[in-house]
Each structure stands twice: as C-alpha cells, then as structure tokens.
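Quick one, probably user error.
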C-alpha cells in the first residue's frame, strides 16, 4: 500500500472568479475486480506496440504520480471497449435534491456518452447506468462530511463512499461496474463559479470495498459549471468527461496560471466553455489510435508525413518526435470538427509532452505559432492566446539545440496536411 497524497490545482475561468479542482491520484494498484482496473490490461492500453513506436513510448521516473507516459501504469479503469459507469445521484438533509434525480442525470447524459464515442472514434462504448433512479439520501448532513476545496480522501470521502454503499443496499452490485460517478445535488456546497469541488479519486489503493471489490476509481461532481453565458445546456456536462479522464489515467494540464500551457486543445486543460477534444497524445495513451495512425520520427534527415484531421475517424493522426526517454514533440492536425467546436485557425498543433512532469505542473506545453497575438477566438472561457497556436503551411517550428525542425509544407484539397520533420 502506498501513502495517499493529493494535489490542489487552481484553475481560472476566463473573466470569472478563480476556481479550484482537486485531483487525487494515489500510486498504483494491483487489485482486481470491477470498479477497478481491467485485470487483463491494468487499465492501460493493452496492445503490444510495434517496435518502430517503442522510442516514442516515453515514460516518467518513479515518483510521478499521474504521468503522460505510455503505457499508463496499472490501477486506472480501462479506456476502450464497453465501460459500465455506475451513476448515482445523492442528496442530503441540509441540501435536499430539487426536482427529479434523473433531471440531474440529464445534465450529463447522453452528452458524456456521445463525447466519448466521438473522441474515441467509437472505441469507448461508455454506458452510464442508473440502477437507482431517485435521489439517494445520505444518512448525515452534507456539512458533516467536511467536504470542501482540497478535502482529502480521509475522513470525509471514505465516510461518504461507505454511506453510499450502505444506502444502495442490495439494489446495486458493485462488481458489475468499471467506475463510479456520484452526481451530487447542485445545492450542496458553493457555486462552481466560486469553487469547483468536483474531484476524482483514481487508482486509489486505499478505497473501501463494496460487494468485495474496492471502489478504486470514482468521480464526484458538484454544482453546475454555469458561467451565465446561456451555454450551460450545451457545455455544462464537460466537467464529467474531464473527471473521468483522470479515471482513465490522464493528468490535469492546467497549472497555477490556468490554461496557459495547453489552452483549449484538451478537455484536461479546459472543461469550461465550448466543446473541445483530447490531444492526439491522449488518444494514443487511451488506446483510441492504432499503431498505424501514429508515426515515431526517430531517423536523421528529413521525413514527410501526411496528417488527417484529429476530429475525423481514420488516417494518420499523430507524429511524435522523441527527445530522450521522457519527452518529445507531438504533431497533430486540429480543425473545427468532431468534438472541436471552436477552432478559429486550423493547422498543425505542436506541443511538448513531458512524462516526468506531474499532473497540474504542466506536462503538456503547446507552442504558439503566433505569439502575443491575443488569439483568434472570442468564445467565452476559451484561453484566447493559444487559440491561434496551430502552424499553417509555410511555418516552421525549430528546436536548434537538438537540431529539430518541423515545417508544415501544404494542405491538400481533401483537408490533409503535409509536414516535414528534420533531425540533424
Ligand atoms: Zn482535473
């Protein structure tokens, strides 16, 4: 058993109050069962990767709790195939559910299921399941659990999970599920505009058991991520795929400074505002890309690659240029399609992936092809400066120290882009 720890990562909502999210990721788990990692894969992508991709399977050193490395360490829920998400709506005597519990459920579904289907090109069949369709009243008032921003797993969340298990009784067999979503009545705790309480305990080796299996991966959703712009019905669900992203092993990309490192290019960076997708790196990490859709640029000299839009199924999606065993540059084509609702300057997104940088500390850095431009979007809650980050035909990214140059050469009529990667 490893000691538990936690991180508190404040994030900003554009022109609104600072909000905070807490992500707990504790070590790894060798436990088996449901609500726990897939025994066969350890929650990570299972396929044996081709030898040509090995140099691109970067990994962090021991001590990085939630790493961008591939493969994902064991302990997380599996991220491909059919995933059964036990989804419970809970309320309290001092925060009674208002309206029907299924109305709360409808704030997140079917949107979340659809988001995963689109982002994964159909590889993640996410099934939210509600064996109990009414509010589950907790035995103690909300305030007695001591749940606030930064609350650790013990004692509040342990008590809450135990109470949830007790109250569900024989109606729920926890062995049938891969992960747990707890949709808390939105009147419990502060407004999400003041404090984001939503939190995930992933790969949690200290989780209590239910029906003989540990509740290793659980997301708790509080409040409503409603910025008052009138878009809540369209975008309010997005906190759930973000929190579930942690359950599949993805780290937070925002930092103390907010979304300035990765912008709106990944839901693990910004989950307020208009729809966005995941980075191609994350799709590979989650097992949503075949090896044939990923190229590992290791050779000296110049190589040409054709990339198809990330939001569209099929074709090459990701070129990775490794720089050592822990980091590298990723290239992908981002356009306004699929889950990417607001791409104002399509092109080749270039970013650094560093598997040695932990969640919340900036494991991904997007390079801005138009620095200090102010960006091209006016969409609310979208980090503006990086919105025009993609490289267009004729533009080059250079790392002179390592002798690497990446040039976007052309966009063809079908919408594919060609890039040249040169390594000295
Ligand atoms: Zn997070």
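Nope, works fine. Designed sequence:
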């Amino acid at each position: 058993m490893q000691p538990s720890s936690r991180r508190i990562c404040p994030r900003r909502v554009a022109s609104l109050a600072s909000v905070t999210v807490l992500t707990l990721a504790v070590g790894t788990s060798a436990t088996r069962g449901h609500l726990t990692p897939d025994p066969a894969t350890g929650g990570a992508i299972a396929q044996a990767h081709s030898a040509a991709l090995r140099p691109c399977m970067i990994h962090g050193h021991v001590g990085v709790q939630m790493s961008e490395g591939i493969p994902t360490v064991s302990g997380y829920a599996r991220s491909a195939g059919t995933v059964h998400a036990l989804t419970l709506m809970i309320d309290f005597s001092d925060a009674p559910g208002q309206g029907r519990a299924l109305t709360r459920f409808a704030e997140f579904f079917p949107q979340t299921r659809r988001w995963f289907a689109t982002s994964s090109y159909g590889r993640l069949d996410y099934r939210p399941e509600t064996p109990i369709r009414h509010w589950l009243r907790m035995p103690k008032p909300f305030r007695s659990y001591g749940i606030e921003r930064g609350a650790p797993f013990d004692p509040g969340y342990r008590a809450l999970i135990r109470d949830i298990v007790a109250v569900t009784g024989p109606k729920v067999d926890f062995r049938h599920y891969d992960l747990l979503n707890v949709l808390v009545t939105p009147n419990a705790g502060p407004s999400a505009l003041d404090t984001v309480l939503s939190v995930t305990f992933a790969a949690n080796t200290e989780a209590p058991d239910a029906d003989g299996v540990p509740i290793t991966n659980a997301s708790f959703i509080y409040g409503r991520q409603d910025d008052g712009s009138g878009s809540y019905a369209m975008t309010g669900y997005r906190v759930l795929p973000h929190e579930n992203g942690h359950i599949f092993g993805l780290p937070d990309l925002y930092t103390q400074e907010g979304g300035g490192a990765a912008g709106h290019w990944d839901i693990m960076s910004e989950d307020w505002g208009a729809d966005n997708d995941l980075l191609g790196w994350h799709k590979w990490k989650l097992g949503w890309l075949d090896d044939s859709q990923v190229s590992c640029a290791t050779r000296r000299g110049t190589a040409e690659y054709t990339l198809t839009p990330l939001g569209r199924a099929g074709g090459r999606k990701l070129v990775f240029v490794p720089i050592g065993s822990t980091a590298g540059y990723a290239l992908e084509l981002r356009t306004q399609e699929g889950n990417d609702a607001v791409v104002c300057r399509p092109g080749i997104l270039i970013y650094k992936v560093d598997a040695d940088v932990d969640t919340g500390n900036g494991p991904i850095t997007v390079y801005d092809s138009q620095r200090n431009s102010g960006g091209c979007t006016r969409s609310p809650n979208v980090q503006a400066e990086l919105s025009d980050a993609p490289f267009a035909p004729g533009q080059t990214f250079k790392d002179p120290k390592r002798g690497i140059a990446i040039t976007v050469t052309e966009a063809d009529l079908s919408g594919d882009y060609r890039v040249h990667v040169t390594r000295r």
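Helices lie at 101-105, 111-119, 153-168, 232-235, 239-247, 280-285.
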